[in-house]
Amino acid sequence: MFTCVEAGSVDISFWPVLHFSHRMNYSRFLTTVSKNRQPSLIRDLTSLLTNASPELVFMAGGLPNPQMFPFQAASVTMKDGRALTIHPKLMTDCLQYLPTPGYPPLIKQLKALTEKIHAPPCWVDSELIVTAGSQDGLCKALEMMINQGDYLITQEPCYTGTLSILNPYQPRYLPVTADHEGMNPEALKAVLSQWQPQDVRDAEEGVPKDFHPSFLSMDTDGRVLRFDSFSKVLSSGLRVGFVTGPKPLIQRILLHKQVSILHAPAMSQVLVSELLHLWGEEGFFRHIRAVQDFYLKQRNAMLEAAKKHLTGLCEWAVPTGGMFLWLKVPRVPDTWDMIMERALEKNVILVPGKAFMCDPSLPCQYMRAAFSVITPEQMEKGLESLAELICEEIALQ
Predict the structure, then answer these.
(1) Which of 168, 291, 312, 346 is the most buried (most CB within 10 A)?
(2) Contact 38, 255 (CB under 8 A)
(3) What tens digit of pLDDT does each residue of 297-311 get?
């Protein structure tokens, strides 16, 4: 199997060697463990409660009696002064088991947002379920598809969380170099030329106009799984994400959820749903723009500090999104020891680039600096200290 993971986005595409028919055979992408997963009868029966008649006498699941829940209602104060109220009925939803796919009102809202933003060409054959953050869905999806020793194409640098999921399977990585715009097309072409078929198993209206086209928006064959998260735009502690993709694959992830987390946190799902209801789509997009504006200012402050303290010592490209500035230190062959052994002495810490590489035994001249939570004053202090550290490191060469 070939799987393509792009670290700079939340899309995964899977590319078989054989030509796609109109109706894809997804079973060839599944591991034996995933194929052997069976539905949880109790979880399936519990899902019947979503649209159940009030007269239904439900004796199938071990649902705790809401009369014994210690919480009755809640009110969350928004930054604009409005109150988001969780009345007793909603509180029961917050505290009770939910269907494994997710809180039904939230799923409906997320489907509407996905259709508006991405307009997936294969939407009729797609499904969406809520996960405990996008990492939960990503882990389950990769475990669903990756076998020991599979070939895997990935952008490099790659998100360390993805590599941590994949490394136990000892995949044969085919890394594709990337720049600030993503995978380098020529590098991707060179990597694809290394394919050895015998080694592979058979295998805008109402939206912010600066959203870039996603893989999902271009997916006409049902090749893409997309992982979204509210961590960076609402709260990382809520642990609410969602995965969208072909129904046969989403069903396999759902079966994994049934026996692992049962469902994403109910309280968080209800809270996000009520927030989206309070804001409406326009309010949500206004919040997204505010988040973008905030991190743009943070990025600009980081670039000013880098220009002042790291010019001549480091190279960097201007980030067009995210929370990080990638720095290359041309005169330091490998940043690992400099960061891991000596940076704390200067009261500054970054992530050495080697942590994002498919082969961590190779030297790496890069490092990643996060500008999301530090103040401009801290940026100045931190990069000034980093400059001193780099100068000392160069002197040791």
Answers:
(1) 346
(2) yes
(3) 999 999 999 999 999
CATH of domain 2-43+68-203+211-284: 3.40.640.10
The structure's pTM equals: 0.84
What does the radius of gyration of the chain's CA atoms come to, in whole angstroms?
23
SS3 77: strand
> Of 226, 242, 284, which Cα lies nearest the Cα of 108?
242
Q: Which candidate, 178, 13, 55, 205, places its Cα nearest to that of 119?
A: 205
Helix (H, G, I), strand (E, B) or coil at 393: helix
State how far the Cα of 386 lies from the Cα of 369, in Å rounded to an integer: 11
Whole-angstrom distance, CA of residue 280 vs CA of residue 119:
19
The dihedral through the CA atoms of 357, 360, 363, 367 has a sign that is positive
Going through 263-379 in order, the beta strands assigned E by DSSP cover 324-328, 351-352, 366-370
pLDDT band for position 213 (cuts 50, 70, 90) = confident
The mean per-residue pLDDT over the stretch 171-181 comes to 87
Check residue 213 and report its DSSP letter: P
- The set of residues, in sequence order, having a beta carbon less than 8 Å from that of 341 and lying 6+ positions away, is none
Query: Is 36 a residue whose pLDDT tops 50?
Result: yes
